[in-house]
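Record format v2
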Amino acid sequence: MTPTVPDPHPEERPVLRPLQRTGWGFRLLVAALLAVIAAGAYAYVTQLRLGLGVTGLNNRVTWGIYITNFVFFIGVSHAGTLISAILRVTGAEWRRPITRMAEAITVFALMVGAPMVLIDMGRPERILSVFRYGRLQSPILWDVISITTYLTGSLLYLYLPLIPDMALLRDRLTEVPRWKRALYRALAAGWRGTPRQHAALERGISAMAIVIIPVAISVHTVVSWIFGMTLRAGWHSTIFGPYFVIGAIFSGIAAIITAMGAFRWVYGLGGFLTDRHFRNLGYLLLTFNLLYMYFTISEYLTIAYGAEVKDTTLVHALFYGAFSHVFWVMLIIGLVLPAVLTLIPHLAPIDLLRRVPALRPIPLGVGAAILGGVGATLHVRGVAYVNTTLGVHHDVVLVAAGVLGAAAFLALLPVLKQRPVASIVLASLLVNAGMWLKRYIIVVPSMALPITPTEWATYQPTWVEWSITAGAFATFILLYALFAKIFPLISLWEVREAKVPEPAPGARAQEVVA
Amino acid sequence: MSRLRLSRRTFVKTLIATGAAATLPSVAKLAETWAAESHSPHARKTQRRWVMVIDLAACDGCKKCTAACQKEHFVPFGQEWIRVFETGNNPYDKQNFPLPCQHCEIAPCVKVCPVAATYHNDEGIVLVDHNKCIGCRFCMAACPYGVRFFNWTEPKHSPQEQFVQYSPEFPVPHRKGTVEKCMLCAHRVKIGRLPACVEACAAAEMWAIWFGDANENLVTNGRDVAKLTDLLAEGRAFRYKEELGTHPRVYYLLPDRRDRRPADSRKPAGKSDDPYRP
């Protein structure tokens, strides 16, 4: 592209470049994602053919990682809309470059999360019965209503601020394929940027920003009520609504930081996604981390102190029983480490770690990985025999791996302190993984818990479930990657507006102040 | 166009008002059905109120009830619609505990079903309509007794099974992807027969399971006929997880009650004021 007139906004080029050119990296990524999705589709066809018997689910643990994925993705969907809406309503000016990415996460997370329930159904062809015979008394109907409202609202809320950018692309990207130009022209909806259009758009966006907040809160509340309305230990809890909403916003913030980190790195959007954005979102992440810790302590302390048999059975299984591996990993990587990583610039003693001899990240990390691999291998049933003849308990190896891993993490801290953005992105990745595990810890143990005079039930997800899960994540990434190829990831007009403040009569005061 | 001009605001307002007006009757209807369905099960006067009484003192844990049930309904492999547990707090306190669907009057499974596939029939039996069930398994998560089962794969069909005309009262042939459970032999009681498990228990000369109609206050174990209220009072009946408020229609008679109470206290207390006690 050789513009004849000087480009008035050269800083926007990195945003527009991905829309104009497609490199091999992108094609490779799409091919890889499509392969994963195809594997997931094959797994789903197998499941349709043979029934849910191909999963690890059974008559006791009737919900497994499909429902875990559902809760996880619906949680991630709070990234966007809620965060961008709250930041908009409170007039936080720094939000401008990140709102679009956040809103897109919402839409795609919902598009991937909601069908997980369909995949979990024994009779997916009867999905329309939910509308035909739907009983409003059933929390599932609450979810259907709430999630469809949220998806509709989020699409609108994604689209409205897109209009001026669509017009901008329509006028500026004249060398892109025809379908793209037609798309931009259609989506621009005749936007010419007149004051009247601006006023109407602003009103629409403000209204949507306010409307979407209670809808978003309702969504994760009713998701929690699917569990909360039953009489099961660990689920039947009044804390569940707010607990889920906080967890959703927490994982949503982590998701947007991850996306920002990825796009800043891949597309070189450092001019828009500055260190300040990562720092601010890191503080938000820390706030919700602390809130989530508070809720987690409240939850377990209350039921453990009351010590009803069904509750203590559950707490024992989580703290040092069958689910303790997942539980402690979740707590450490989902809550504790991210808290340290987001606080890293303020932790002065970290520099002292440099002086400790032998505390070097690479050898320690390699050691931890080797020991972890050995420990995990010893867990495999066939190897267990060899293990007993050697006389080494596999948990000893795992604990040693954990100690080395912790040392490696400590060794890494001074390095990360030099790179606050990297450490916040790392924290957000850990939070994503931790929150998925947390959803697993919510769904599965309460179902495996004996409710009649029997033993604990077991659940081991099969390749079908893992393939479909991988396919779901790949679909999410693919949708996002395609979005990034068609639409600008940064809301250009909003960023421009911030740079040239036009205090028109009646303009919102807080914007000018901020 | 210009004469008929309707401002957007007025249009949206009218739309919302119309929508609200259209929704109101359905909300009223909802409240009505909700009240009828789950909140006051005794408001509905039904012809029959089938109940089951299981005498834990008489049960020797032979599991013939389970076998008879499986034969009667061609129960798919891996399911036990009436399951006999062995309970007890120590080795000297072993107790057999047969557990069919409790046919709760306030049934958690009926509450949560999104499509009304699981419901109370007119005689208080909790049934599943396998033509409606979407297989979401919410009822299985909601059931505090763990008596619901899912057809994870296509069940094996025996030749006899193929000739049965499906009805929720006799849910055969079984279908993949739907939820199954004890239906209190609704197809048998309709024609005056006892449930298969009751008959099998009588055939094994144990007579541990009683079945009857709470409206008539009569139950039978296949040999004797008893007044339900007498039987419950004498047997010091309890219901499983009574504290959950599900009001099961299955009663259990205490296993260790024999010769432990003075004879005069065995007299029934008479008609109780408690509506939940027949």
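Chain B has eight helices and eleven strands.
The interface with chain A takes residues 30, 34, 37-38, 78-79, 83, 85-87, 97, 99, 108, 111-117, 132-138, 140-142, 144-146, 148-154, 176-179, 244 of chain B (CB under 8 Å).
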